[in-house]
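TASK: fixed-backbone design
INPUT:
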């Protein structure tokens, strides 16, 4: 594969994206530890020096992949959710967003979910803080759905259960397969809402001590 040489005059976001896409492809299939900078450069069609022109290290590449994925989710939520009045519609938007984003960038999602633990401590702390922000936004909506007086631990359990349904699809779901992302989103949303409605009727939602 012919490699391009980089210069400061030739700097643009498209070249950085090519390297990130190549790295996420390799990280999601081979794993972060097993992937080399040479392999990333070869797949991106650049020189090894070209990779280091934009990134300080392989860990820096992993961080940029994880960061871009999480920040895209947060930005989409902050821009849209506040304009939706109904909590159920808010949650539907979140499920659609989460699964739709995975379908468009599954290699980034797999890298975040399965390889981010390889990040140096300062990078990992930043990613975890942003994931926490995303989780808290979803928890607030789930809490609204279950209603006032609900034990906090119930809303927390429901929120983590929702994330488990949405995140575990990286183990089996192929966006190019027969099941379209919007169909999977509808399945996840309906399962969650039907379960939530059932829990509303149970004593688990009562206030006070159990």
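OUTPUT:
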């Amino acid at each position: 594969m012919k490699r391009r040489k980089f210069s400061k005059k030739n700097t643009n976001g498209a070249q950085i994206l090519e390297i990130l896409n190549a790295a996420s492809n390799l990280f999601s299939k081979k794993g972060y530890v097993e992937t080399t900078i040479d392999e990333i450069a070869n797949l991106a069609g650049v020189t090894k020096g070209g990779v280091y022109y934009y990134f300080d290290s392989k860990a820096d590449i992993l961080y940029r992949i994880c960061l871009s994925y999480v920040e895209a989710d947060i930005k989409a939520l902050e821009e849209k959710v506040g304009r939706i009045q109904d909590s159920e519609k808010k949650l539907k938007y979140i499920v659609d967003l989460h699964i739709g984003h995975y379908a468009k960038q599954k290699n980034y999602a797999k890298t975040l979910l399965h390889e981010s633990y390889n990040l140096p401590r300062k990078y990992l702390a930043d990613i975890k803080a942003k994931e926490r922000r995303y989780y808290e936004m979803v928890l607030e909506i789930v809490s609204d759905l279950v209603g006032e007086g609900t034990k906090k631990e119930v809303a927390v359990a429901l929120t983590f259960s929702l994330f488990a349904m949405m995140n575990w699809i990286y183990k089996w779901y192929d966006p190019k397969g027969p099941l379209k992302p919007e169909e999977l989103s509808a399945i996840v949303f309906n399962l969650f809402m039907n379960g939530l409605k059932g829990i509303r009727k149970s004593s688990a939602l009562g206030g006070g001590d159990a």
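COMMENT: Confidence is low (pLDDT under 50) at residues 1-10.
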